[in-house]
Amino acid sequence: YFRRMTNKLDQLLKLLTKKDRWLIIFIADPDALASAMALKRIMARRVETVSLAMVNEVTRPDNMAMIRYLQLPVRKLSPPLAAQYDKYALVDSQPHHHPILEKYPFSIVIDHHPQDRNRPVQAPFTEIQPKYGANSSLMMELIFNMNLRPGKHLATALLYGIKTDTHSFEQSFHDVDIRAFRYLSKLADHLILRKIVRSEYRVEWLQYFSQAFKKMRLLGDGLTVFMGEMDSTDILVILADFFQRVHDISWDLVSGISGNHLVIIFRGDGIKVDMGDLANKLFGSYGKAGGRQSMARAEIPLDALGEEHPQQFIWERLQSCKMIPKSYNPTKSKSTQT
Known about the structure:
The chain is built from 13 helices and 12 strands. It has helices spanning 6-14, 30-43, 61-69, 79-82, 135-145, 152-165, 175-185, 190-197, 206-215, 234-243, 275-283, 310-320, 334-337, and strands spanning 21-26, 49-54, 74-76, 87-91, 108-111, 125-128, 217-219, 222-229, 251-258, 261-268, 288-291, 295-301. Helix 2 packs parallel to helix 5 (135-145). The longest helix has 14 residues, at 30-43. It is globular, with a radius of gyration of 22 Å.
């Protein structure tokens, strides 16, 4: 049903001894949370102790619901916490993905993101499958090869990890993602899964929807929104995903200020415009920018804008690539623009 991983499994199990204390580190999202749970299941009873630590703060409702309903014992990574362990594992990421991760000598790295040839992963055990849509599918392969049966909570987590990272199989995925999803569907708690899936918004976020409706600018089959200063960039992602559900909207850009950066979230139907290429073309020379065909992100230091207003900065670059007409005047009312 899954590929045989005998040699890889032998390499992994040789690293797990009763005297070691392991800390599994990750950048929290559904796929990473599920992957960490799965690796902990593999390590159970083979090491002295194993704990989970996340680099980032969890603010998205689905992540919070996942931790709550699946009773995940997750803590925020800190130097005092890390000092209590002598071995470190990394899932759903690679050390160069975050400055904090580069500080730890990982013995295990399991990931599904593309490798950087200039920064190869160095660890006694590595398993990286960039063709896989979700890291949860890779973890399911390992569990299956160990003849382990995931319990309801683990099966639910892995199922949701696959669902989110493949965008319900609307984005790139591998045959193993389908096999893992089908296998886990029989074991998961679908009532809990439904609660997690439906936890999309927080009450305090509803005000931002009202603001976005007032600030949005329709541009043919596209839409832009500049939200101003934001406490969290999560709401930019939520809004960008929301507008993609509107009929006749094929692309949208939702932007805002977070700290000393202009953050721009790109979403598209992946047909007319490659959003990853667009983000890099428009903003790659100013800061970090890139992504996939239907989704991308740009983060630009405000210093790079000079005296230019962030909203005007975005519009001028959209005009340069003909995403909006040259005659477009952002100071006019919404009704005159649409």
